[in-house]
Specification:
By secondary structure, this protein is α+β, with helices and mostly antiparallel strands. The chain has three helices and four strands; from the N terminus they run βαβαβαβ. A four-stranded antiparallel β-sheet has the order 2-3-1-4.
C-alpha cells in the first residue's frame, strides 16, 4: 500500500461538485476516498455568483479533502487541470504526519 503522506484540499464552486466527484470516482487508483463539505469563501479572490453572496461578502463553495500519496496528488492535480480547468478552483497540498483508523 502506498504511503498516505499528504492531504489534497480542493475548494470549488458548489455548481462543480457533481462533476468533480464524478471525476474522482473514475480514478479510485488515485483517490480511494475523500470528504466533501460546504464552506464559505472570503477575500479578494472570491467570485460571487449571486446577489446574496455579494451582500454577505462570502461565496458559497464546496471543499474536498483527500488523504493520499504525494505523487498521486501531483498526478491528480495535473489531471484535474486538464479535465476541469477553472480559475475558481483552488487547491493546496499539506503534509500528513500520521493517518489511521481507531479500530
Amino acid at each position: 500500500m502506498k504511503q498516505l503522506d499528504c492531504c489534497l484540499t480542493i475548494i470549488f464552486p458548489r455548481a462543480l461538485e457533481e462533476n468533480l466527484v464524478d471525476n474522482l470516482l473514475t480514478h479510485p487508483d488515485l483517490a480511494s476516498g475523500f470528504t466533501t463539505s460546504h464552506v464559505e469563501g472570503h477575500g479578494a479572490g472570491a467570485a460571487f455568483h449571486s446577489v446574496q453572496e455579494q451582500v454577505r461578502g462570502r461565496a458559497h463553495r464546496s471543499q474536498m479533502q483527500i488523504v493520499m500519496n504525494r505523487e498521486d496528488a501531483a498526478t491528480l492535480v495535473a489531471h484535474l487541470k486538464a479535465e476541469l480547468p477553472n480559475r475558481e478552483v483552488a487547491y493546496w497540498i499539506t503534509p500528513v504526519m500520521e493517518f489511521g483508523r481507531l479500530a
